[in-house]
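README: folding subset

This subset contains proteins for which both the sequence and a predicted structure token string are available. Records are stored as plain text. Below is the entry for Enoyl-CoA hydratase/isomerase family protein (256 residues), shown exactly as it appears on disk.
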Amino acid sequence: MDGTVSLAVRGAVAEIALAAGPLNLVTRPLLRDLNAAIRDLAGRAGIRCVILHGGEGRAFCAGSDIREFADLRADASEHKILFEDMVLRNLARLPMPTIAAIDGPALGGGLELALACDLRVLRRGVAVGLTESRLGGLAGNGSVRLTRLVGPARAKEMLFTGETISDEQALAWGVVNRIADGSALDAARAMAATIAARGPVSNRLAKALVDAAQDQALDAALCASTVAQQAIFDSSDLHTGVAAFFAKREPEFDGR
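--- output ---
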């Protein structure tokens, strides 16, 4: 790793911090380090939630380092597009819930990173946007993910104008899940603690089913839900939860 990303694990919650300078610009080294952290976490059964945040940077991530664009033309897919899309796909496909904690601007490729997470917590007063059209660029991955969140008309407005939107607008449109009056990272940590206390088998299967609801035909998604429900009844987590309910105590799930 090139030191542009740091990974910390505290109990059942992992934190990926971007550490690529004040603006946390998306570069090839950052993408390599982020992908390594994602690969590390993907196989860890004990991790119940992952937080992605901007570390010490002024921005969560201010987008791509456009200095890399000068040498990219016909070979852009080879040197940037395909690798960046793969990293975003890998982030979105982490089996456990993920939260983007946005304490500074998330612009262009930075918002694309946040959109690849399951949930987004935004610090009050921080703007977000897919700003690529200002430079004549395009948020390819972000165009698709944003549309699934906010619908085509709102996505087109953000993409066509390249303007940022306020915290309240981001919440009203569904770009973010919550606004934090203080630190978005602190709010994300509180949310992650709640998620980590819930059934980990349930949460992983719920994530898979919600994704299937968008990616598959209705009947195929419902078939997947039947299989997932059987997996829940086969798990020890459900029976641990039921026993805790009758004993009037909080369950302690083991993720099996």
